[in-house]
Queue: 3 jobs
Job 1
Amino acid sequence: MKNLFFLFITFLVLKSEDSFITQYEYGQMLYNNPRGIGCVHCHGKDGSGALIAKYKEDGKTKSLRGPNIRNKSIKDLKKSLFKRHKVMPTYFLTDSEIEALAYFLSNKGD
């Protein structure tokens, strides 16, 4: 019984204090390559948006840009990630993954 108690306490201590990677690093990893094409390709290195493509329509040059997502709340990120988009792929991220992405974006230095 004493050994079981020791294992349980060890598990709690390791789980709460020692993590293989930080939430920032996990969010960064997901941002760069969540499951397929990374957010970085359309939203830029810092989430402020990036040029995806230029094209001509009716003789005019137009641009397709990824929107700025740096100041999005977790609620807004979840809403956007679960919504079908014409251009953005669906990632099927978990709540904890979205929280890590939000943490990374809100703590990303310029």
Job 2
Amino acid sequence: MSALLFGSISTIADTSELQRESFNEAFAAHDLDWRWETDEYREMLRGNGGADRIAGYAADRGQDVDAAAVHATKSELFQQKLGRGGLTARPGVLESLRSAKQAGGKVALVTTTSPENVVALVQGVDELSLSDFDLVVDSSVVSTSKPDPAAYAYALQTLGEDAAEAVAVEDNVGGVESATAAGVTCLAFPNTNTAGHDFGAARVVDRLDPADLPTGLQA
């Protein structure tokens, strides 16, 4: 048996710019005179964790900010954007997912975002449902964020899969580090705002192709 492990919601649909817009709208809602422009945000994405990103930014500016509250507002705004629907799956994602399932492999979403974000994503992408995944790992299951390998370790144990028989797809450096630390071969699939990052992955691709998956995941 083999497993295809999608490491974040932006490996399914590129939501990175929606995330940035939601951060900026949350800042305005909390009367913060902040605005994260594209280049600055791209640099921030070299690390993981939205609330930590807010806290670090506040500390650098010498401001006392309730990072958890700002992040909660950002998450609500982001989910509203996802809920409008019309999201398009990234190139080759649905084909690779179906190929893996048809070949008898297992498919999982292995993220440390909130379960609400996962549900909103799936509802926003046509031709996708939670039932397409054999397992969903989110922040309600694993509290330790990437690059810690805990999410992947949990997924492998729950699926009954060996790391050597799995392949992960990640769109950010911390995700690649998480998968690699768990012993899982990782394809880097950069999103709009992580393209150009130095991933250190087995391969960097601009689309998923079922033919590039391990034999056990090819229909």
Job 3
Amino acid sequence: MSSIASNIASTLNLIRDAEQRSGRAAGSVGLLAVSKTKPVEMLREAYEAGQRDFGENYLQDALPKMEQLSELEICWHFIGPLQSNKTRAVAEKFDWFHALDRLKIARRLSEQRPTDKAPLNVCLQINISDEQSKSGVAPDEAAALVAELIKLPGLQLRGLMAIPAAGLDQAGQLEAFARMRQLFEQLQALAPQMDTLSMGMSGDLVSAVAEGSTLVRIGTAIFGARDYARPQD
């Protein structure tokens, strides 16, 4: 077994253990492998180990990999911030976008989504820790944006995404994720089709699962630390 396959197996075991300890159904939490800046060979190894969902942050890095791996049945997630002049590539090439935080971007993605593809799955990014340096919608502004998003034919609003402040202890993690879960449940009254709570990374996976995450985004624990420079989009 390769080291990546072993890492995926260990991560899945951790997820399943967290599900069990939180009283969650087995298999209720999915794994998104965050492959940003990682070479194609690593993604192939992960695919051979059974991984199908991959998350990318940088278009300049992602698009060549998508072309090289086009024969594989990969579900591609764009999880980084998106400038308005970069929306077409996401609308045309990706299956999911996790960092939606502006109506302008949403409208462009909807207009640019090819009509022969299913609507683009999107998650609304929430700035749950109220960090000035972080993207995302303030929790009290989310409902108004959700009401607009559900009108756009090229998009399918699937849920919410958040990255709580770094350095929180477990109690702080649980508190932030609990607020996300509560907001998610409130917004389902407006958008009952929402089924995805994208939260939890390598350092806070257990807390995220305890508070209702349905999709954890794991990079370092699978692929190791970032080992080359960030591409310039």
